[in-house]
């Protein structure tokens, strides 16, 4: 562990340490949780961190629940080989494979195809519920 | 023999002095200067409504025409102050109504304002011109209706990010047909639809209207009609920007927007559809301020818009702009003074968009006039901070929010101490700083020593020990406001540097290790401070002395103990038997 941080242990507080998996083995994420907090520090539901004003937070929340015409949204994360940052998008926002590919190509600044691997292009694949990697485009869009 | 400056001459000189800092200095010279100054001050600013009584302020400044007040601590914006804490406008309005009927302007921030307050304002001040409420709550649209209907010379009515009990859009219809004085109207925080024909007529007859900020309920068709009637606008907040428009309607809207040749500031743009952005292109070259915080639009569309805004000075945008977009902004917007980048997905744990520290580095390289930064980012590096400080020593306000608490420099795994050291040392005019990420006590040693002009500092999830607080309180000569949350210390540094707290406006600490015992000691030691223990598990005496309290809010005051404390706020005055040597009693 590269960083050493001292924490004073006080009677009525508990400190919990958790390691977050990351690229470097030496990284450690220490989280301090004080027992008298009435709300649990569950990150997903925190209203006080990060420090974003209520109005903006509410507007963003509303957005995530945006209902498209077919009343659903399906968010997936797409990773490109070699890039650490994945991009999130709503599959229901697209009308078909073509518009999906067009958008992805734009997002990742590369050309993407469904189909046989070609040295010049990236190929779009997905992992099905059995964990197998499948080529996108084999089954109908709907 | 000594010469005395006749007070008439001093009065004449003071006529030219607007700055309250300067006037405060003038007041300290001697008694007669104090007298002359107080009788000529028109605009009064009170940074903490509990620092002084309304009666004292009203008595001191009989010629006051404008009062600005701030109530709740800043962290109230992030839900850290429980409801009912305080910050009531009523005692101030009451005192003013009784003694200062010529009052023209009231500006309140983070205060509780009731309909009674608004009705009192409407009834008491015949010349009332300007009401600006920022982040206030406690009133309904009925109160606004009272202002609209009664204030004959109303020039400004601005509700900025207020929480209003919205009983409907009727309030707007209360502006009499004869009222033509409006210069600025901001109802962007209200939800209900106003009666559009009344809005149209209001806008048509107020020929001096310069600033109009609509709420989300106003449609694009409505916007087009309003703009046609008010092409003289300099500031516009649109309503929702996503209705379905036919090509003809879009073209009409475009035309109406382009007729606003003096437009400098644009905001609103809720849910703006990318295909509608070109309607704004015509006004881009003149824009100095653009608020895109509600526009979830992709980087390429943002860049197409921003590259036309060559005069832009203030930009608020979502992180959807990405590093690439900021690089474009750095190239095109050479006049940029202020940049705010907000997180589009604040609750996500991993980076979701391609916005990194590099984006801010680009801006620091390209925008020579950059002064003010607010940047939300998932992670950061020391190298970036050092580069930014080197590129832009002109930065006066630097707020970096690394979203992941305790996140180190992600390339070196070191704390961000060196980076913030560079900011503190390099940006000599730094007035406001928010730090985040992994920070040890060292970072605060640097800040304490080098940030000579720092007035306001915000800290979250940082530091190791009391040393951190000690460095800050014994350094930072000009520190006025310090707010700290989730840091593991408190007692020792607080008690050792108690004297410093009287030189500051306020100190806020929440989720730290400040014990009730220390709060009592501090209260006893420093009678001119209000040491508030804000703890929803009240009263604090039922717990052991050493147990930490949820929150403390300490501020200097001439007003003595608050008379409006709720149950969950404790000060030593609630337990006088504890023994306070000199209670400040007015």
Automatic annotation (TrEMBL), chain A:
Subunit structure: Homodimers and heterodimers.
Protein name: Auxin-responsive protein
Cellular component GO terms held in the UniProt record: nucleus
Compositional bias segments (type: Basic and acidic residues): 1-12
UniProt keyword list: Auxin signaling pathway, Nucleus, Repressor, Transcription, Transcription regulation
The keyword Transcription belongs to this UniProt entry's keyword annotation: yes
UniProt-annotated stretches for the region Disordered: 1-26
Free-text function comment from the UniProt entry: Aux/IAA proteins are short-lived transcriptional factors that function as repressors of early auxin response genes at low auxin concentrations.
Compartments where found: Nucleus
Species the sequence originates in: Microthlaspi erraticum
Family: Belongs to the Aux/IAA family.
Coiled coil (residue ranges): none
Domain PB1: 73-142
Main localization, broad class: nucleus
InterPro entries per UniProt: AUX/IAA_dom, AUX_IAA, PB1-like
Alphabetized Pfam families for the sequence: AUX_IAA
GO terms of biological process kind: auxin-activated signaling pathway; regulation of DNA-templated transcription
Automatic annotation (TrEMBL), chain B:
Entry keyword annotation includes Methyltransferase: no
Pathway entry: Protein modification; protein ubiquitination
GO molecular function ontology, one term from the record: auxin binding
GO CC terms, sorted: nucleus; SCF ubiquitin ligase complex
GO biological process entries: auxin-activated signaling pathway; pollen maturation; SCF-dependent proteasomal ubiquitin-dependent protein catabolic process
Entry keyword set: Auxin signaling pathway, Developmental protein, Nucleus, Ubl conjugation pathway
Domain F-box: 1-33
Localization annotation: Nucleus
Matching SMART domains: LRR_CC
Pfam families associated with the record: F-box_5 (PF18511), Transp_inhibit (PF18791)
InterPro entries: COI1_F-box, F-box_dom, Leu-rich_rpt_Cys-con_subtyp, LRR_dom_sf, Transp_inhibit
PANTHER family hit by this protein: F-BOX/TPR REPEAT PROTEIN POF3 (PTHR16134), GRR1-LIKE PROTEIN 1 (PTHR16134:SF50)
Protein name (record): F-box domain-containing protein
């Amino acid at each position: 562990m590269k960083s050493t941080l001292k924490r004073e242990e006080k009677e009525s507080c508990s400190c919990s340490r958790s390691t977050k998996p990351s690229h470097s083995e030496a990284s450690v994420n220490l989280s301090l949780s004080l027992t008298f907090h009435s709300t649990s520090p569950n990150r997903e539901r925190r209203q006080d961190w990060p420090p974003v004003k209520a109005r903006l937070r509410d507007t963003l929340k509303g957005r995530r629940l945006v209902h498209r015409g077919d009343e659903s949204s399906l968010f997936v994360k797409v990773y490109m080989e070699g890039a650490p940052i994945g991009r999130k998008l709503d599959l229901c926002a697209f009308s078909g494979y073509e518009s999906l590919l067009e958008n992805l190509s734009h997002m990742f600044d590369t050309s993407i195809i469904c189909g046989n691997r070609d040295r010049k292009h990236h190929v779009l694949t997905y992992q099905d519920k059995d964990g197998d990697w499948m080529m996108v485009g084999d089954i109908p869009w709907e | 023999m000594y010469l005395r400056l006749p007070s008439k001459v001093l009065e004449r000189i003071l006529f030219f002095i607007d700055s309250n800092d300067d006037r405060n200095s003038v007041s300290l010279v001697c008694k007669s200067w104090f007298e002359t100054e107080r009788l000529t001050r028109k605009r009064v600013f009170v940074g903490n409504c509990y620092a002084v009584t309304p009666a004292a302020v009203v008595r001191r400044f009989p010629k006051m025409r404008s009062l600005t007040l701030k109530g709740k601590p800043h962290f109230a914006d992030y839900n850290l102050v429980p409801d009912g804490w305080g910050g009531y406008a009523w005692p101030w309005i009451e005192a003013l109504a009784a003694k200062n009927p010529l009052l023209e302007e009231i500006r309140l921030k983070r205060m509780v304002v009731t309909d009674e307050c608004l009705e009192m304002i409407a009834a008491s001040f015949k010349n009332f011109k300007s009401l600006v409420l920022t982040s206030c709550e406690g009133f309904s649209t009925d109160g606004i209706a009272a202002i609209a209907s009664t204030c004959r010379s109303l020039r400004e009515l601005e509700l900025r990010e207020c929480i209003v009990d919205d009983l409907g859009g009727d309030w707007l219809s209360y502006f009499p047909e004869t009222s033509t004085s409006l210069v600025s109207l901001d109802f962007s925080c209200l939800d209900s639809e106003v009666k559009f024909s009344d809005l149209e007529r209001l806008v048509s007859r107020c020929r001096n209207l310069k600033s109009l900020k609509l709420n989300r309920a106003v449609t694009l068709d409505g916007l087009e009609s309003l703009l046609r009637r008010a092409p003289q606008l300099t500031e516009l907040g649109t309503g929702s920007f996503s209705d379905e428009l036919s090509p003809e309607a879009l073209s009409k809207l475009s035309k109406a927007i382009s007729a606003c040749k003096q437009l400098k500031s644009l905001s609103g743009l809720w849910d703006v559809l990318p295909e509608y952005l070109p309607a704004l292109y015509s006004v881009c070259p003149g824009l100095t301020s653009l608020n895109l915080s509600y526009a979830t639009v992709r980087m390429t569309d943002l860049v197409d818009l921003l590259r036309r805004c060559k005069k832009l000075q203030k930009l608020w945008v979502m992180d959807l702009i990405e590093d690439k977009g900021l690089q474009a902004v750095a190239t095109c917007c050479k006049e940029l003074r202020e940049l705010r980048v907000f997180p589009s997905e604040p609750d996500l744990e991993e980076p979701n968009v391609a916005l990194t520290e590099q984006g801010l580095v680009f801006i620091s390289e390209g925008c020579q006039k950059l002064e003010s930064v607010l940047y939300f980012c998932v992670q950061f590096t020391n190298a970036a901070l050092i580069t930014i400080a080197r590129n832009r020593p002109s930065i006066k306000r630097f707020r970096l929010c690394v979203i992941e608490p305790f996140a180190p420099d992600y390339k070196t795994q070191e704390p961000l101490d060196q980076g913030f050291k560079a900011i503190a040392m390099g940006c000599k005019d730094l007035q406001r700083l928010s730090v985040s990420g992994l920070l040890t006590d060292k970072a605060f040693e640097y800040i304490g020593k080098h940030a000579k002009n720092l007035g306001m500092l915000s800290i979250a999830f940082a530091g190791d020990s009391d040393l951190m607080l000690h460095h800050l309180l014994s350094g930072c000569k000009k520190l006025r406001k310090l707010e700290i949350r989730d840091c593991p210390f408190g007692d020792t540094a607080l008690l050792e540097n108690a004297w410093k707290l009287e030189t500051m406006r306020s100190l806020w600490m929440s989720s730290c290790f400040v014990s009730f015992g220390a709060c009592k000691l501090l209260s006893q030691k420093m009678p001119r401070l209000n040491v508030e223990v804000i703890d929803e598990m009240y009263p604090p005496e039922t717990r052991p002395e050493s147990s930490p309290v949820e929150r403390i809010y300490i501020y200097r005051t001439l007003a003595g103990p608050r008379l409006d404390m709720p149950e969950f706020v404790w000060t030593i005055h609630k337990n006088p038997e504890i023994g306070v040597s000199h209670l400040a009693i007015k």
